Amino acid sequence: MDDLELLRDLGRELGEEPPPELARQRTRLLDAARGRRRSRLPGGRWTLLGVVAAVTAAAVLVPASMLHGRGARPPAAGTPGAAAKAVNVLVVGSDARSGGPARSDTIVLVHLPADRASAEAVSIPRDSLVDVPACRSAKGAATRAYRGTVNTAYTVGGVPCLLKAVEKATLVPVDAAVEMDFGGFKAIVDALGGVQVTLPKAIVDPRGRRLLPPGRQVVDGEGALVYVRARHGLGDGSDLDRIKRQQQFMAAVVGRAKSGVLADPVRLARFTAAVARSVRTYPRMGVKELEALAWSLRKTGPGAVRFATVPVRPAPEDPNRVVIDRARADRVFTPFRR
Amino acid sequence: MVSAMTAPPTVPDCDADLIERSHADPEAFAALFDRYSAMLYRYVSRRLGPEAAEDVVGETFLVAFSKRHRYDAAYTDARPWLFGIATRLVARHHRSEAARYRALRRSPVDGPVEGPAERVAAGVTAWASRPALAAALAGLPRRDLDVLLLVAWGDLAYEEVARALGIPVGTVRSRLNRARRKVRAALGDTNPMDEEE
Q1: More confident residue, A32 or B9
Q2: Which ipTM value was assigned to this complex?
Q3: Rounded to a whole number, what is the distance in Å from the CA of A205 to chain B's nearest CA?
Q4: TM segments (chain A) (predicted)?
């Protein structure tokens, strides 16, 4: 191999196929061609934590498969999942890693229909402008209503405030909320003893460092985070492909839970404890209630989770922000309204 | 949109015709995007990674659009022009580009994993040479690097590189030779880190 050929090889390894998001740059060009002000729509796609939160939603589904194998215990009454009733769950992915105050990076509404045969997950761009209602801060002080991006509601009054803001903006009644951060996600995967994934090629960070080698492998929590965060370079790079990857990962999580953890009482206890420790629920649910919710989800296959992003349009008051497009959002949220 | 309903299917317009047409009908310029954005994206993502690449490709077409009146219609193929604009935009990111190559230089040589034997053999050469190649790229002066990568990663011919960078073909050749000499030296050398000047 001569030097140019080696270099071409390296190029092929480093380069990426154009992602579907490149279409936004075409829009940008057309806007310029039409003499419009440049508008770059923020949000509108799954952020990396969006993927994590989606997997988290799956983690809520995981105990279902475990309980399924463990003999049928009737679920406790009076918990969100117990009755055969449709439930809307707000999944909040927060990022508390940077040392500063935790930010809500991902906001996903999950709808579980009464028959639990499927689930819908709709992500809400964190920079959507909404009317944040009056809330209570963490210290209990009353806060004033204002117009701002939806994620600021979390900063102002935590998950309860975010929940109110989301309900108001989407007109979807929310029954419960689940909050989790990167650490929780990692802890859950680690408690499972890792999850098996197959990579068509290595995952490399923007600086070219190799984070995960290609091939079939069992990844720990840290590796799983790398896997679900990777947006490019796996599969054909399309949105559909990414969704497929998320679902495969969820299936792997479920499979792992069924085969490994279930067979080992010590690890089962460790796993349940990890889930209970890693997610905060509103209203508070103990291990028992989580199990009850999980029990009601036993029929939900990991492939039956559909993903969508709430339709948005540029905000009238600020073209750099988005607002939820009510008319189109109504269609997405139809199943969420009972 | 009615204006999008174009003439009956004939021979597709050459780039120069498209650009000509975009003077009166600016939206026609989007056809250039459809032709070359993927190609440009591959080239830029090799140099800067996917995040920056999306933006640089977008900028490239905005810059090209604003300069379309100065395009020389004698050149039917707009590729060199677009690659030239993209390369100048890549230069703005030279710090992160260099950091990318330096990081590759450090990446551990633990070899590729299992696969068909011959692919592994080929993979080993390519994989083993990676730190040396990256070290060479990190050490090249900008003007030589641009020529080398337009040839190797942009698939441009010498004349096209000359047009892209606005330099004579002879200069392209001499820069390419100099760059390749350094790359070969790095590949042959057991300790390429010492090769930097």
Answers
A1: A32
A2: 0.82
A3: 9
A4: 46-67
